[in-house]
Amino acid sequence: MNKFSISLLFFLCLAAVSPWVYAQDNASVQKMLTITQAAMCEGIKDYAPQNSAVVFSIAIGKVFCFTSFNPVPRNMYIYHRWYRSDRLITTKRLSLKTPEWSTFSTIQLREADKGPWRVEIKDNNGKIIKIVRFSITD
Asked: How far apart are CA 122 and CA 125, in angstroms?
């Protein structure tokens, strides 16, 4: 066999294997970040939300947004963006670790915080993963 034939055979084999290699690599990328739980609550105990609700009294003093993910395809950050009456109040950057992870953010409540709230849970690219709505009352 001459050099041309060997080179041609090599490139034909490479062309035949490339789609398979690409498909395998693409499958690992397709393993998406998946949220398994998102809850507003009064506290966190043993890595779990306590007293989940959608309406909270101002008297409790603080409220928590708990999120859990499985799978987490790679170490990354997510963001909890807290809004009161459609006005952004704060953004919390939270880290996630593989293969699964739970995390939370919290805000202190003031008298002026009564009314409708939402927390947008976003990925590193700014894509909204979930929106959790709740209210603060007397």
From this structure: 8
